[in-house]
Design a protein that fits this description.
Oligomer: single chain
Structural class: mainly alpha
Shape: flat
CATH superfamily of the largest domain: Winged helix-like DNA-binding domain superfamily/Winged helix DNA-binding domain
Number of domains: 2
Largest sheet: 3 strands, antiparallel
Number of helices: 8
Strand order of the largest sheet: 1-3-2
Mean pLDDT: 82
C-alpha cells in the first residue's frame, strides 16, 4: 500500500484502495455479504463438511446435523454464487448433484478451520464462561445458583447468548 509522503500516517486509505480491498465495517460493502455467507450458522459447517471431499446434497444434509433442506439449498446457492463451492449436476434420473470446494473455497476453509479448531480446543473453558455468566445473572435476579448448571439447563438459558444446548459433542 503506497501512501503520499505528505499524508498523515493515521489518515484513511485512498478511496481506490478501499474499493480494491473492501471495507467489512461499511454497511454497503459487498464483502460484508460474503462474510455473512461464510460465517453464517450453516455456511461455515458446509465449508467444513466439504473440506477434502466432494459430497452430494443428501450426504451434506446427513453430515450437518439440524440443517433443513431449504436452508442447506439456500446456503449452497450463496456459497456457489460467492465462488467458494462448485456444483456439478449429472444428467441422470434420479438427479445427481455433487458439491465441492473451489480453490478459493479451500483457502477460505483453511482460515475457517483454524477458528473451528480453536473453538473445539477451548470449548470447556467457553462452557465454564457460560456457567459463570449464568451464576452472575441469577445473582442479579436474586436466584439461588443451580448445583451444577450446564449450558442447556433452564437456569442458564436466559442468562447466556444462544449457543450449544449441551456441553457434550
Amino acid at each position: 500500500m503506497s501512501r503520499d509522503l505528505f499524508q498523515p500516517a493515521d489518515a484513511a486509505p485512498p478511496l481506490s484502495e478501499r474499493f480494491e480491498r473492501g471495507d467489512l465495517m461499511s454497511v454497503n460493502c459487498p464483502s460484508r455479504e460474503v462474510f455473512r455467507h461464510i460465517t453464517s450458522r450453516w455456511g461455515a459447517l458446509v465449508l467444513i463438511a466439504l473440506e477434502g471431499r466432494t459430497r452430494r446434497f443428501s450426504e451434506l444434509r446427513r453430515a450437518i446435523g439440524g440443517v433443513s433442506e431449504r436452508m442447506l439449498a439456500q446456503t449452497l446457492q450463496w456459497l456457489e454464487a460467492d465462488g467458494l463451492i462448485s456444483r456439478k449436476a449429472f444428467d441422470v434420473v434420479p438427479p445427481h448433484v455433487e458439491y465441492s470446494l473451489t480453490p478459493f473455497g479451500r483457502e477460505a476453509t483453511q482460515h475457517l478451520r483454524v477458528l473451528a479448531d480453536w473453538i473445539e480446543t477451548n470449548l470447556s473453558q467457553i462452557a465454564r464462561g457460560w456457567s459463570e455468566s449464568a451464576a452472575r445473572a441469577n445473582a442479579r435476579r436474586g436466584r439461588r445458583p443451580a448445583s451444577n448448571p450446564t449450558p442447556g439447563d433452564a437456569s442458564t438459558r436466559a442468562a447466556r447468548p444462544a449457543g450449544p444446548r449441551r456441553a457434550q459433542c
